[in-house]
Amino acid sequence: MTTEWPVRLVDHEVTLRPLAASDHDAWRRARQRNAAWLVPWDATVPPGGEARPTSFKQLVRRLSRQARQGQTYPFALEVGGRFAGQVTVNNIVRGSAQFASVGYWLDKNFAGRGVMPRAVAMVIDHCFFTAGLHRIEIAIRPENSNSLRVVEKLGIREIGYAPMYLHIDGAWRDHRIYAITKEEVPDGLLSRLRASGGAANNVEPQ
Fold it and tell me: Which of 61, 78, 83, 103 could be 15's S-S partner, Cβ–Cβ 3.0 to 4.6 Å?
């Protein structure tokens, strides 16, 4: 039996589980090591906006509270037991919408191995088949070729272009918008992604 949250998603060496305060050291090392690679794509707060958490502990506390309220699912990504990045389901809307958006970042040490497409597929499958969501969007800056490759590998279609959509790296930035609905992947997005002989998706509720 599965639960909406907290949950642990496993596909062979790739694991997604709730981000925790104990991830602090590994998270900090990954962010420092990859600063030049990640900062151009990091969300920032516009003037007058709500201040972001000033510490990792505060970040985890805020995300955990939002997760309990059903507003977000903050996943830590592990590869072979090593912290490798994050996949976060944001802006969950219920009611008639059943919608959310997904964002992600990856330690460069794990890039080029197909990790992030698998991880995003696992999270979207959880959103569709366990959490009951209907539509997932991913917004990507046109210059972010690494993130664009993820949605291309997953076959998620582009639905529009949003000028000055999100505040990223200190300014309002244009984004390409991608979206997928549950009807498009009746057997799951991970299943569609797998090559022959690929791994099974196992879900272990906490």
Answer: 78
The residues of the chain scoring below 50 in pLDDT are 1, 195-206
Name the CA dihedral angle for 17, 116, 141, 163, rounded to a multiple of 10 degrees. Answer: -60
Asked whether residue 204 is assigned to any structural domain, the reply reads: no
Closest to 86 measured CA to CA, from 105, 114, 62, 65: 105
- Per the structure, the complete domain to which residue 149 belongs is given by 7-196
Tokens 């709730």 belong to which residue?
Answer: 18
pTM for this model (two decimals): 0.92
Number of domains in the chain: 1
> Is 177 inside any structural domain?
yes
Q: Each residue of 33-52: pLDDT tens digit? A: 999 999 999 999 999 888 88
What's the one-letter identity of residue 176? Answer: R
Helix (H) or strand (E) holding 27: helix 24-33
Q: Is 203 among the domain residues? A: no
Max CA separation in the chain (angstroms): 51
206 inside domain = no
At residue 4, the pLDDT reads 86
pLDDT 10s digits, 87-101:
999 999 999 999 999
